[in-house]
Amino acid sequence: MITTKEIAPHAIVKDINEWHEGKEQENYYLNLALFYGSKEFKVFPVRPDKYPYKNFSWTKRASSNPDEIKAMWQEYPNGRPAFYCKESGIVVIDTDNKPEKNKHGFKLLTNLVNKLGMLPKTILIYTQSNGTHMYFKLPQNVQLKRKIGNCIDIQSNAYCVCGGVKGNKGYYRFAKGYTFEDINGIPQLPKKWITYLTQEDKNRVFTGSNDIQYEPIQIKGDFRQLYEKCDFCRFAVDNADSLGEIYWFYFANILSKLKNGFDIFDYFSKPYPNYSYKETRAKFDNAQKYKINCKTIARDFKECKNCQYYKK
After folding, report:
1. What are the Cα distances from residue 168, in Å, to 84, 105, 254?
2. Which of 23, 148, 165, 259 lies deepest, with the highest CB count within 10 Å?
3. Model's pTM, two decimal places?
4. Residues 182-235 pLDDT 10s
């Protein structure tokens, strides 16, 4: 049985401030992907900046099959392994701790533990941005919140970079004593935590550069027609926390035709990592300058070709 130490010895550290610039062996990322795959994680390659490769349908190709993993890394030999949370049956509590940016993730997590009880010991990853990832089994038949405050993401339908990966800003490191070998199976979330994570918020609060507190966007009117009739729009809404840039561009262009299009686009942009109001506004304004139709979107979103409204 291959172990974490054999695959990524340099990426096992005693605390969050420890870094090892270990020399990565040949096929390191392929082997790391195969290692996660052997644990039944559905993996796929992402770029060093953590974003999916253009025209790569990760929701369809993520796999734990060794042959399929090898095929993906033949296409993208420098790809960093990530895993599709939903298909892996994993929910990741992704805590961001940047006090200088008013993100006090560890303090909020401590408050939640005091309120809801201790979380069971599980795999713990120190992220490149001074935060942590914790893995738990994904509860069945429930819809989890996507965010708690402005500094904890609940990754259940998105993807997550694997431990041992080196990103543009540093390593995703395994905490010593919290690797796959230290955990006797990934644990379930306690009932109180599941109840809390499935409770609907009366107000959703995000802290961005515009510091808005607001009611959830309602899917109604012209927006409801789009959501119900357009597979791409429905895909964009349901996967807003993990969309690639090209999909955001298409989504912004479509929404620019609606009276409150930017409000909708901004709302679904907020859960995305590193959200910025200024950048979101700029992306929206740029997208509406272009003429885009179903054929354009179908180049990247193949499901469009099966739509009854698609004109061949």
Report:
1. 21, 22, 32
2. 165
3. 0.67
4. 998 999 999 999 999 987 544 443 333 333 333 445 566 778 888 778 888 888
At 36-90, the pLDDT tens digits run 999 999 999 999 888 888 888 898 999 999 999 999 999 999 999 999 999 999 9
Does any domain span residue 203?
Answer: no
- Residue 47 in any domain: the answer is yes
CA distance 127 to 15: 11
**94 in Cβ contact with 152 (< 8 Å):** yes
Distance CA 159, CA 136 (A): 14
Burial 187-215 (b: 16+ CB within 10 A, else e): bebeeebbebbeeeeeebebbbeeeeeee
Among the three residues 173, 198, 223, which one is the final residue of a domain in this structure?
A: 198
pLDDT tops 60 at residue 22: yes
Tell me the Cα Rg of the chain: 20
Helix (H) / strand (E) element for 174: namely strand 173-175
